[in-house]
Amino acid sequence: MEDPPPALSVQPIGWLRTGKTLKFHALHQPRESIAEINRIELRKDSRFEGALRDLNGFSRIWLVWWFHRNPNWRPMVLPPRGPAVRRGVFATRSPHRPNPIGISAVQLIDVSRLTLHVGPCDLVDGTPILDIKPYLPAYDAFPAEKSGWWEEVESVERASPQFTIHWAPLARKQRDWLRSNWNVDFSDRMCELLGRDPSPHRSRRIKKRRSGGFEIGCGAWRAIFSLDLTRVTILEITPAYPLRFLIDPERPGITDCDAQIDFLKHWPEKD
Ligand SMILES: C[S@@+](CC[C@H](N)C(=O)[O-])C[C@H]1O[C@@H](n2cnc3c(N)ncnc32)[C@H](O)[C@@H]1O
User: Hey, CA dihedral for 28, 82, 73, 24, is it positive or negative?
Assistant: First the structure.
């Protein structure tokens, strides 16, 4: 067997700061219709003030970044949109890549010393930024090119019914309680996924429940829902972890751990 080539090393030039702490919070690609301001803080120990000169005149930049929350890669992945068909990872934008590098073309709002404000993006908080390049429409945009399997997905989605989302009183109360007491809110992202296609799917984390109905995993939470033709009703929210895990000192670092424990005081686990 041939030796693998020597590793190449890179250092982040900075990090993205955003309110999105969970992968579930980040969109699959930046969506322009969302009013959102995120911050990139560049390292102070390098000569990046000079490197940023002249960037202010560009309204869009490429971010080249590292999927730092991904422990592994897979040759075939299940894209979150479209039918449950695995695709070669190089034919997707999946985070599970051999070199976990992401690219996003984002609006540049302003540059102020070593801080850049950018528009909607699909990166989570703390993502290491490897490089920044100006977006040049003359070289970077080819809207007429073919998009392989993705074109099929889009045409199936266009022809499919749109699902409407309704909140049962219990789920609405739980959602509002989480928002106001713990600033936890996953409803936009969840409604986007369910509105497009609520059928069971591994990477959308939707499954059928043995006891009836369906559930969707939303970061550290789960929502239980029913489906009646094109009507989705969110019935209830539950923590994704059982209480015995949440209070187990051998399992530190569970996301939203305190919020989940508090939630269970109001809505205890069912047997
Ligand atoms: C489908 S990828 C697309 C990324 C990029 N626009 C691209 O095309 O290379 C976007 C998803 O990556 C995940 N993600 C964002 N930041 C990440 C990080 N730092 N580590 C691992 N996964 C991340 C989020 O779940 C987000 O929805």
Answer: positive
Which helix (H) or strand (E) is 271 found in, with range?
none
Query: pLDDT of 10-66, one tens digit each?
Result: 999 999 999 887 777 777 777 777 788 999 999 999 999 999 999 999 999 999 999
Q: Which domain holds residue 63?
A: 14-153
Its pTM stands at: 0.81
Domain CATH number, residue 22 = 2.40.30.70
Query: Does 124 sit in the ligand 1 pocket, CB within 6 Å?
Result: yes
How many domains does the structure of the chain reveal?
2
Ligand 1 touching residue 103 (CB < 6 A): yes
Ligand 1, pocket-test mutation among 20, 29, 122, most atoms within 8 A of CB:
122
Instruction: At 268, list the tokens.
Output: 């205890």
CA of 122 to the centre of ligand 1 (A): 6
Q: Do 82 and 104 fall within a single domain?
A: yes
- Numbers of helices and strands, H then E, in the chain: 7, 13
Alpha helix ranges (H) inside the chain: 48-51, 137-140, 148-159, 169-182, 187-196, 243-246, 257-266
